Amino acid sequence: MTPAWMPALLLGATAVAAAPAAAVELPLSPEGRLAAVEAGRRMAGAEGGYPVRDYVLFETDDALAMQPGEGEIYAVTLRTPFERARWTSYTRARQGGPATEAVDPQPAETVDVVVYVRSTESRGHDVLDRLGLPVFTLASRGRLEPLAVERSRPFRGSQMVVRAGGQARPAERWFGTIAWRFQLAAGDAGPLSFEIVDGTGRTYRLQADLAHFR
Questions:
Q1: 60: left (phi over 0), alpha (psi -120 to 50) or beta
Q2: Are 152 and 178 in contact (CB under 8 A)?
Q3: What average pLDDT does range 79-84 have in this prediction?
Q4: List of long-range contacts for 144-147, beta carbons under 8 Å, 24+ apart
Q5: Model's pTM, two decimal places?
Q6: Crossing angle, helix 30-44 and helix 81-94, to 10 degrees?
Q7: How far is residue 195's CA from residue 2's CA, in Å, rounded to a whole number?
Q8: Is residue 24 helix, strand or coil?
């Protein structure tokens, strides 16, 4: 079974984030919160799922297929206060509940980095445990320690695996996500770097600028 959120990730960039020219608000303003709630409502009423293109820091060429030599991380996304509020509004609307202004229970001046992983072999139920600790660095204040960590429950699914000869066959793999939350301040809306090592030893070094995210 293909995870429901994979199609949305296909809308993302492949290396470095390319987001709207609107600096992240820390904390989110009342006007920004209202805009996020309305954006989530509109998305819930439209076809095509929940797009995350503007918040993708990294994505493989095809999230639905594993190419030879690829590691266990196939996408990394950023959650700003605006995006969290938008997502909560979207999910509430999809579930038939009311969307309210108080949609984000998380600390106001935080961002999350969400890492999407898949095992490279069928016995990879510990794929989340094999991830190294992330290094999140701000140009303004240096390295930050995570404020909190959210882990999904690993689950099995079918993944197209491309062999060295170019043939693709479905194979059972394990999937999961980990979100690290970092405490920021209003003056931190600038360049950042995020580095993490997956269970195969592959290192991912990502660069972005919070001034380019809403």
A1: beta
A2: yes
A3: 94
A4: 144/182, 144/183, 144/184, 146/180, 146/181, 146/182, 147/107, 147/110, 147/181, 147/182, 147/183
A5: 0.86
A6: 40
A7: 27
A8: coil
> What residues contact residue 133 under an 8 Å CB cut-off, 6+ apart?
196
Residues 112-171: tens digit of each pLDDT: 999 999 999 888 899 999 999 999 999 888 999 999 999 999 999 999 999 887 888 999
Q: Which residues contact 49 (CB under 8 A, 6 or more apart)?
A: 4, 5, 7, 8
Token couple for 122: 């069928």
CA 93 centroid distance within chain:
21
Pull the structure tokens for residue 10: 């296909």
What does pLDDT average to over the chain? 85
User: Whose CA is closest to 41, among 9, 106, 85?
Assistant: 85
* Average pLDDT value for residue range 17-40: 80
